[in-house]
Amino acid sequence: MKAYSIFVENLKCGGCANTIRKTVSKFSDVQKVEVDVEQSRIDFELEDSKDQIDQIKQKLAQIGYPEVGAANNFVTEAKSYVSCAIGRIGAQ
User: Which domain CATH number covers 31?
Assistant: First the structure.
């Protein structure tokens, strides 16, 4: 296992963190997913796989949390609000 960190845009609160944690945890071979809201960072362990990392980044962008430096626009930000709301509902 190797440790990875991804810094993302639009990470605002615990609702966002819950959605991100659930999304990243669904990938095979991913373990120990932690989300740091203040740093906008996602930490996890994964077998060394460049393809899997790219897939995780793509999925995060699809739900509104693109990697820092990637395209972040109104549509992406709107998706993050929806994902955040889902994360808040799922935490109750």
Answer: 3.30.70.100
